[in-house]
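Take one protein record:
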Amino acid sequence: MKSLALAEALIMTMLAACGGAGDSADEPNGGSDQLVGTFLLSLVSPQAERSGYTSMFGKVFDGPTPSPILWEEASKNEYCRLLTPRVPHCQESCGATAICAEDDQCQAYPASLAVGTVTVTGVQTKSGESSFSMDPIVDNYQPVGLELAYPAFAAGDPIGVSAAGAGAVSAFAIQAQGIADLELLNPAIEFATGQAVTLSWTPPAAVTASDIFVKVDISHHGGTKGLIECQAPDAGSLELSAEMLDALTALGSSGFPYLSISRKALGSVVTSVGRVDLAIVSTVNQEVSIPGLVSCNQDQDCPLGQICRDDLKCE
C-alpha cells in the first residue's frame, strides 16, 4: 500500500540520519547504541481535503542503515547547524547488497527483523481501547483491523511499546510521552538576504519531554546542496539566523523550497541488536519563498521568456 511504503521510507530516513540516544536505555548482552529500528507514532493535522489522523509504523533491522550521502557541519549556533553533503567514493564497486558509506569503505545494507508480537499501550483506538497488539507482516509493524483515534493520546500521556522478542532480538520495552499536535503560527515564510526568520508555534500547555526539530531544504529538487537542521526546546519560538540562512541560500536553490518543523518526544532502548526508538511526532511542512525564485512544474508556470528547468525553477 502507498501509506505503508511512505511509512517505511520515513523509517529508513530516520535510521540513516544521525540522532541522539533519546531517553534512558536498557542494554542487555553488550548491545550497541547505534540506531537499528524505530516505532513511529504520528499525529497528522487535519487539512482542507482530509480529516486529521493518527498513524503508527515500526521496523527493526539487524544493523544501522548506511546513507549514500555524508553530512558535514559547516557552521553552528546554539540550536542549529548548517550541513553540506559529501558523497563518498569507492574505487571498487560495492555491488547490489552494500553501499559506499565512506571513501573506499563499503557497508552492507541491513536485513529487516521480526521482533515478535508488539504491544502498544496508552494509544486510543476508535473503538475505545487503550492498548493493542501488532504482529509482523514481512517484518513491518502497523495496526491491522483497527483504526486509531485522532488524537489517540494527550500531551504527557505515558505511551509504551513492548516486543516479545524473536530470533536474535531479545524482548524489549520502550516508554515515551504523548505530545499535542503542532500548530505553526507563521502564515508565510520568506528567506530574504540579511534577514533572520523567527518560527512561532503554540507551546505545550504543560511541561512535556518534547523538543522541536527543524529541517530547511531549499535545493532538494536539484540535488541537495545543503541543509539547516535544528533541535530546540519546545518553547514557542526559534530564530533562524540571517547568517545561516544567507549561507544556505548561497549554496543554491531549486523549485519548491520548503521547511519542515516537528514536535517530537523520544524514548529509546538498547536491545541485543542495537538501539530502537519510539518516536512520537507531529510535523508541519511549509513552502518557503525566496525573492526572485519562481517554482514551476511546466514552462507555462514561468514568466514570459523563461522555461521550467529540471530542478523545477524558472529561468
